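user: Please supply your own:

assistant:
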Amino acid sequence: MSYRLKSITRDEHLAFVAAQPSVSHMQVPAWADVKPDWRGESLGWFDEGGNLVGAGLALLRPLPKLKKYFAYLPEGPVIDWTATGLDQWLRPMLAYLKAQGVFSVKMGPPVVQRRWSAEAVKAAIADPQATKLGDAQATMREPEAFELADRLRRMGWQQTESAGEDGFAAGQPRYVFQVPFKGRPLEEIQRDLNQQWRRNIKKAEKAGVKVVQGDYGDLPAFHAIYVETAERDQFIPRPLAYFQRMWTALQAEDDNRMRLYLAHHEGEVLAAATMLTVGEHVWYSYGASTSRKREVQPNNAIQWRMMSDAYELGAGIYDFRGITDTLEEDNHLLGLLRFKVGSGGQAVEYLGEWDFPLNKVLHKAFNLYMSRR
């Protein structure tokens, strides 16, 4: 089977996404509007019968002073990654992008490689010999994913080795934490929360914490405590304008694409979080909490409300997004991993991100430029 690739309209792309059970929120047309420094283009794969059988959002970033572009398909494209003739999918994409002046392509195949149950993660954290989650015995291993990685290498793709601090990928997280919902009653999901989570949810309810859905006008309240969180947890916060742009772009595409939740107690916002939905996949996207009144447990309250609402929306997966793969006790992100593990889900390792240098000199120069920013 040979595939033809061409640019498609937003409507064509959105219709394709709507027909899939799960697509990354970074692979919907509106995500390009969230990233003003990039030019977005929707790509479509067509079979010999003219049917749209694959799609991808490519974000193009210009190289300073040159009419050359770096192309990025975060957590995409959405194609048949199990196909034996994978080259028939990827070669047309590389040829098309090269013709657009692209010198390097980065993609993130949405393919799971390994999974660890909550119990396995807890055991790894408790093991003084374990320093990385990736070194711990996985609960489930996907041989096809390892074979896919070998095939990509043979095609000339290079796995992105560089990672951010404490195991977070420089692009999108390779390790995430997810709670499977599909085929399970909500009562079972609640029972799988650990004792501390269930106790804290009850504490919050007894203390009078109220979790409400916010709107565009509540984004400044979210952002104020998000900045406080960034200072406490040692990361660089995004500006308020970023979240306002995200809200406007995603809500225009689908009024359930993005939600904002706020946990109130005695007139004060103690925690807030954003939730993104595409099909059966729901993500806890950004979270924030103040250091005040932690004893009333607003974080557990807001997460349980979001999980319950995601369930009502028909979610098959509730995704806590990135986790550290570093298990050392002095790691400042280990507390966040413990919190997510308490939800009773599973740690998931994706195949990671892959580069294809179409121009090796410019590819190397761009990587050097980005590393010095």
In short: The CA atoms of residues 181 and 316 lie 5 Å apart. Residues 162-169 have pLDDT under 50 and may be disordered. The chain is about 35% helix and 25% strand. The domain at 112-140+166-350 is CATH 3.40.630.30 (Aminopeptidase).
